[in-house]
UniProtKB/TrEMBL annotation:
Zn(2+) binds at residues 282, 287, 289, 295. Transmembrane segments: none annotated. Belongs to the TRAFAC class YlqF/YawG GTPase family. RsgA subfamily. HAMAP family: GTPase_RsgA. The lineage of its organism: Bacteria, Bacillati, Actinomycetota, Actinomycetes, Streptosporangiales. It comes from the Bacteria. It holds the Pfam family RsgA_GTPase. This is Small ribosomal subunit biogenesis GTPase RsgA. It comes from Actinomadura nitritigenes. Binds 1 zinc ion per subunit. GTP binds at residues 151-154, 201-209.
Length: 358
């Protein structure tokens, strides 16, 4: 008899769908219940089930891999009871991943199963093109739709000029100038959000204030910023998932100071689509876009259609991403060698034991 989910309404506001329900069939038959992870602490998490939130334990993967560890936004199979326990994660349809702060070869998942990425940047400080390009690469690589939100319009002299500058860096991306103080464009932003939305941006950009306005109540902690540089303290210290009143859910994240890429080749192609298109027209397929004859990229720079800064940023992020990918490949090779050595050692011990038997 085909399985049917008997109570979808309890989790539908958190994004539960028929597709997820079908994926969960075997877990249902094993007596497990679906849950969405809203917050993760050390060895514990808050999981939302059809009957409400619960605290649950989980076992970190071995060898430890942050990409396989439960994260805010994940869907999971939960064993209910007096001591709830996460048994398995459902496949992610996408995730926002950066290189770990430890600079190891592992990636760090900032949020899972995201549909919309709100990149919040403050108009109270000058726009940092390189930072915006990095954030856009993270967003596009996740498979989500980015939206750039320029906050604190009430503190800016020429918000339209910054909006135009951001638009040149992110063609095809919706850009909104907002103010939580005056309410400017907040309704327009709410109309753009769908599914699971995550707030990304540096500390002091006003992400939590923006989130509170969208949520309709003060659920997210906020703090002051330094007047001299517009930077704020990390008032948001962990990722947390909260339902939005108009449907969907919102994930607030701590301010990002280090935005290192991890396996973001597709995201970079999207961010620098015009350079990728120009490169395809170069005379040589391995053109370095330097002094080679017939270089369409250099021709665009000479014609004023592309800036040297944009090309330098593209090269820098490509090098960084290639380096991160090589580190990951090396780690995977080492892990395969270690597993093979462990298997060989086990077999040798088994043979020795067998040979010693009378």
């Amino acid at each position: 008899m085909p399985h049917t989910y008997t109570d979808p309404s309890g989790l539908s506001r958190y994004g539960w769908t028929g597709t997820l329900d079908r994926t969960f069939t075997e877990h249902h038959e094993a007596g497990l219940v679906p849950a969405r992870i809203s917050r993760v602490d050390r060895g514990m998490c808050t999981a939302i089930t059809a009957s409400g939130p619960t605290r649950a334990t989980f076992v970190a993967p071995h060898p430890s891999d942050p990409l396989l560890t439960p994260c805010t936004g994940d869907w999971a199979a939960l064993r209910p009871g007096t001591e709830p326990h996460l048994v398995a994660l459902l496949p992610r349809h996408g995730a926002i991943v950066r290189s770990s702060a430890s600079r190891s070869s592992h990636g760090q998942v900032l949020a899972a199963n995201v549909d919309t990425v709100v990149i919040a940047l403050s108009l109270a400080t000058p726009l940092d093109p390189a930072k915006l390009e990095r954030l856009l690469a993270l967003a596009w690589e996740s498979g989500a739709q980015p939206v750039i939100v320029l906050t604190k319009a009430d503190l800016a002299d020429q918000p339209e000029a910054v909006q135009a500058e951001a638009g040149a860096l992110a063609p095809g991306v919706e850009i909104l100038v907002t103010s939580v103080t005056t309410g400017h464009n907040i309704d327009a932003l709410a109309a753009l959000l769908h599914g699971t939305t995550v707030l990304l941006g540096p500390s002091g950009a006003g992400k939590s204030s923006l989130g509170n306005v969208l949520l309709g109540e003060e659920l997210l902690a906020t703090g002051r910023v330094r007047a001299q540089d517009g930077k704020g303290r990390h008032t948001t210290v962990r990722r947390e998932l909260v339902p939005l009143p108009g449907g969907g859910v919102l994930i607030d994240t701590p301010g990002l100071r280090a935005i290192s890429l991890h396996d973001a080749a597709d995201g970079l192609e999207q961010v620098f689509a015009e350079i990728e298109e120009l490169a395809a027209r170069c005379r040589f397929g391995d053109c370095a876009h330097d002094t080679e004859p017939g270089c369409a990229v250099q021709a665009a720079i000479e014609a004023g259609e592309l800036t040297e800064r944009r090309l330098d940023s593209y090269r820098k992020l490509q090098r960084e991403n290639t380096w991160a990918a090589s580190r990951t490949d090396a780690r995977l090779r080492d892990e395969r060698v270690k597993r093979q050595k462990a298997i060989t050692s086990h077999l040798r011990a088994t043979y020795r034991f067998r040979d010693q038997q009378p």
